[in-house]
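When time allows, look over one protein, given below as sequence and tokens. The question is which stretches look regular and which look disordered:
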Amino acid sequence: MLFTEENVRDNLRNRDGKRVFYLGKNDQLTSAARDFLTRERIPILPAETAKPERWQLLGGGFTEEKPEHMTHLNGDVLVLKTHPRILFRGAMDTLEAELVLCQLAADAETAKSVGEILQFARMLLRCEVLGEPVPSGKLCGLTPEEIRSHSHRPQDFYGQPHFMPSAADGMGIARLNRCRCAAREAELRAVAAFTDADGCPTRGDLLQAMNRISSMLYILMIKAKK
């Protein structure tokens, strides 16, 4: 396989707290992909070294065989598939699937915005898996503060008040609404996974970013309704 820079970004892994990229014997990198890895100082490791000789269990101890009811939290650490962070990742998978379906039902302008949200969601998942901070920036041209104000007061910014979607609004808005609901579900999973026993967030950056996704999807619904 020929890995592009996008492929490489999507397949980075965490090993001993650091980002790495595993490359198979018959795989190759584009120049842009290799430059990215060099620039980010991400080591390229043989793919056969990706599987550890034994896995660490989150509660302590090790296992030499990966049980079917467990999965990777990061690196060589295994957890139950019901672990809150694994449930969050599953909800993000569902959100990404809904966003792809939404693109197929949207007009060109909306599909472009949904595609940007899709890339943003994939970036968030990568940050979660690798333990990286969420980079600051705009989503669909809006800052976090602008997304909040636009979604709370759509009448002021778009001349369209809040509304409850119905079948009369058409497939495009219906798909956007499904994405918004999926984003809300993923956000709830994120809150469950990234708050401590006292209710304090352990990944405030990730929680804010998840809220941005659902609010941005609602803004797209407002614009489509208008």
The radius of gyration is 20 Å. The longest strand covers residues 18-23.
